[in-house]
UniProtKB/TrEMBL annotation:
Keywords: Coiled coil, Hydrolase, Protease, Signal. Residues 379-472 form the M23ase beta-sheet core domain. It comes from the Bacteria. Residues 1-31 form the signal peptide. SUPFAM superfamilies: Duplicated hybrid motif (SSF51261). Residues 296-305 have a biased composition (Low complexity). GO terms for molecular function: metalloendopeptidase activity. It comes from Zemynaea arenosa. Residues 42-132 form a coiled coil. Residues 296-327 are annotated as: Disordered. This is Protease.
Length: 478
């Protein structure tokens, strides 16, 4: 009878609930914390950047190849100044990572508290149900079956008991899910704590490196001070610096143009392949429809099933049609290019003319076109005297196309703004961005310094269009 089946179902569900409760009481051993993926991700990113930096290093060597083989005095500072820049950038990145991880830990702690409160409430509810079940046992159900009451009422009451047991089972399943969630939370919390320990260890290493390189640079400066003063007055040296920067900007512009052409060609090829696939698919579909109509007409005409027509040359919808002539041998893979972020829209730089904020807080002490070191050499940008370590901010949206040490300009950043505009930031103490990074106007990209043998602390700033320097005062509100 149905009421016996209902009673049996209720007993089964209740026994399942008891078994689940016992499993929860026993619990499970906590899983070992997983190793963080942070180190692996960093290694992958550094490997990718290493290829970019190697390309830029080769570019700098090519630019300097036509110069005299005698090294510049400031070259002796290059290793320490690059190391100081790297250490400062790493410390800044680690501080940001630390803040993000601490915020993540705060969120995880709040989630864990909410989950624990829910679990405690569910455990109390289950304990109460188990106690009631233990006290009542099966008496209510047996009494109901033996009461001799109306079978329809008995069946209805047993169905109700089954629903109650099912609700208890759902409660236990919800508890299981919450326990699994809190275990996942604990693992994520442990992972975040492990990451914080990694970050703290890296910070200690970078701080030690920074202090060591600062001391090394100070010692070198003390020994090279007279030679550096003489070099700064040497017109030939200043002219070579200007030529070197001009060649760098020209070569970067060439790379950008080549990448744009390659990207346009790749996009066109993808469009042609997509169009070919769509045409092939449409042709195949039309052929299927034609054959289906022929088969339907043939069946209607003969009044019985007949040998159907078939598509003699089916076309794979997922593959483009094969060319009639054998394809030419594949061209060799092009050499790896500098990976760059998408450029800003053309015209965005022009719209900011006269509205750009100065790249660093300080006093302009050398202006575009003024004499520099004597006759024949003039400033192609501006020099802004600023305190060491002051944030250098990009004047407009763009992408980093050069970030490294260069003779005559120390730690140098070049930003491409699209439409053949570039901005140049030299003498920096530290470089905060990598080649390929997209930047918004006002983003900190470096810190002011006196690298490259410069006498004063500050920033050298240029704007170039089609490789030629233009007066920054027409663009930036100094």
């Amino acid at each position: 009878m149905s009421f016996f089946r209902a009673g049996h179902a209720a007993q089964v569900v209740t026994r399942a609930a008891l078994a689940a409760a016992l499993c929860l009481a026993v619990g499970s051993a906590p899983a070992a914390p997983k190793q963080t993926a942070r180190s692996k991700q960093k290694a992958t990113a550094e490997a990718a950047r290493a290829g970019i930096q190697q390309k830029l290093a080769n570019l700098k060597k090519e630019i300097s190849r036509t110069e005299a083989q005698k090294e510049d005095v400031a070259d002796q500072l290059a290793e320490s100044e690059e190391a100081i820049s790297d250490a400062n950038r790493e410390l800044r990145d680690l501080a940001e990572e630390q803040d993000q991880t601490n915020r993540k830990l705060t969120d995880l702690d709040a989630q864990r508290t909410a989950l624990q409160e829910t679990i405690d409430a569910q455990k109390k509810q289950i304990a109460k149900l188990l106690k009631e079940h233990y006290v009542a046992g099966n008496e209510d159900r047996i009494k109901l079956l033996l009461s001799g009451d109306n079978p329809n009422r008995i069946n209805r009451d047993l169905q109700m008991m089954a629903y109650v047991s099912q609700a208890q089972a759902k409660l236990l399943e919800s508890l299981r899910q919450n326990l699994a969630s809190i275990e996942t939370n604990q693992q994520a919390t442990q992972n975040a704590k492990d990451e914080l320990e990694e970050i703290a260890d890296e910070q200690r290493q970078q701080k030690a490196t920074l202090e060591k390189e600062k001391a090394k640079r100070a010692e070198l400066l003390a020994g090279l001070s007279k030679k550096l003063q003489t070099q700064r007055k040497d017109l030939t040296s200043l002219q070579r610096d200007e030529e070197r920067l001009g060649k760098l900007v020209d070569n970067l512009a060439k790379i950008i143009r080549e990448q744009q052409i390659a990207a346009a060609a790749a996009a066109k090829k993808r469009q042609e392949e997509a169009a070919a696939r769509a045409a092939a698919k449409a042709k195949a579909q039309a052929e299927r429809e034609r054959i289906a109509k022929l088969n339907a007409a043939n069946a209607a005409k003969n009044g019985k099933a007949s040998t159907p027509f078939k598509v003699t040359d089916p076309i794979d919808d997922d593959e483009p049609p094969k060319p009639a002539v054998a394809a030419a041998p594949a061209a060799p893979e092009p050499a790896e290019e500098v990976v760059l972020a998408p450029p800003p829209p053309d015209g965005s730089f022009d719209k900011l003319k006269g509205q750009m904020v100065r790249p660093v807080a300080g006093q302009v002490v050398a202006r575009f076109g003024s004499k520099r070191g004597g006759e024949g050499v003039t400033w192609k940008g501006v020099f802004i005297r600023a305190s060491e370590g002051a944030d250098v901010r990009v004047v407009a949206p763009g992408r980093i196309v050069f970030s490294g040490w260069m003779r005559g300009f120390g730690n140098l950043v070049v930003v491409d703004h699209g439409n053949d505009y570039m901005s140049v930031y030299g003498y920096n103490q530290s470089l905060l961005k990598h080649v390929g990074d997209a930047v918004k106007g006002g983003d900190a990209i470096a810190t002011a310094g006196s690298t490259g043998g410069n006498e004063e602390t500050g920033l050298y700033f240029e704007i170039r269009r089609l490789g030629r320097p233009i007066d920054p005062a027409q663009w930036v509100k100094f």
